[in-house]
Amino acid sequence: MKLNIVEYPDKRLRQKSKEVTTFDENLHKLLDAMYPFMIETNGIGLAAIQVEHPIRALIINLPDEEGEQHPEDLLEIINPVLVQKGGETTYQEGCLSVPQFYEDVKRYEQVTVNYQDREGNRKTLKADGLLAIAIQHEIDHLEGILFIDHLSYARRKKFEKEYKKLQKERKRTK
Ligand code: Y12
Ligand code: CO
């Protein structure tokens, strides 16, 4: 399955993703294609809406201490619901749909998420650190929210200016 990244300011990123109700081969094929796509593009998290499939599915594969990503650590999270959240942390986030831009975002430090796996089995995951941040970033995508939406008014203005410039430059060098 060929996947294409949807990049800001594409309005498709603003759709609310639909609940997954059928845990069939189509879902498995999409998840199977998302993993190599994310690894090849140096990602650690990817929501289906970012690759033109607005369904409530996301994957996360955090690197180990050596910076290596292992397929056995892959998390496939379908229909997630945050059921507990607490604390506060700030991390410099990036997103495959907002290339070449990183900015500090404030998030909950610990979260508990209920979700389903690719077979539809119900699971609960308690997370903190980078995993908690990644879960919140990816769940935001399912609601049509991007990390840049969390910036202050002034920082967002600066981003829009810088991003337009970068886009022009990318078009010119393509
Ligand atoms: C902490 C913060 C954010 C997340 C969400 C997942 N974010 C990513 O996976 C970001 C990936 C990313 C990869 C890039 O590299 C390439 O595109 C080759 C990148 O670089 C450029 O755009 C040039 C930017 C972001 C989880 C946890
Ligand atoms: Co993202």
TrEMBL record:
EC class of the enzyme, as a word: hydrolase
Keywords: Hydrolase
MF terms (GO), sorted A to Z: peptide deformylase activity
HAMAP family: Pep_deformylase
Official protein name in the record: Peptide deformylase
Lineage per the UniProt record: unclassified sequences, metagenomes, ecological metagenomes
EC number(s) given by UniProt: 3.5.1.88
InterPro entries assigned: Peptide_deformylase, Peptide_deformylase_sf
SUPFAM superfamilies in the record: Peptide deformylase
Family matches, as PANTHER family: PEPTIDE DEFORMYLASE
Family of the protein in this entry: Belongs to the polypeptide deformylase family.
Keyword Hydrolase among UniProt keywords: yes
